[in-house]
Design brief:
- This protein is mainly alpha-helical.
- The chain has 7 helices and no strands.
Length: 187
Amino acid sequence: MNDIFRVNGRASRPLSAVQVRELDDCDMALLTEEKGSVAPPLKRLSERHHALARCLASGMEDGDAAITCGYVASRVSILKADPAFQELLVFYRQDVNSKYLDMHGVLAGLSLDAAMELRERLEADISAEEKSISVGQLMELTKLGADRTGFGPQSSQLNVTVDLAGRLEAARKRVEQRRIGSQANDG
């Protein structure tokens, strides 16, 4: 009688069990063993595998990387245990590290050069002909380099634009259009 008003799931069935044999100590010991399933190794790495490896290597969380690349979190976990995917991760982590270190070095050097030039200009009286780069440009280079190499100002401000009024107005228009459409179909 409960199933008449069921709103989700399957209808319940009566539970039945049949005893095949008595359980012994060996059966009980088997219950404590790890049954972990092992996925078959990857036969080939697709572009999606590469995209996932790049996301993970860049420091993205597993769940975010899964969503970004169209996987479920459990599949990411399984892939991370696969030897071929582990090699791919190592490759991309090295690539990310080398690119970061190269860019970090370039920006740090540029910022340092700009800061040194700025210091020299402040200490010396340089004629207008010698000033090919303005003080403002040097300051901007110094700020850029400091910011990108971890020495810039820290900000915890978060700007969120919801535009609730615009969304509400759009929803009202959709409802009105549907109402007009249903009246036309009824007539």
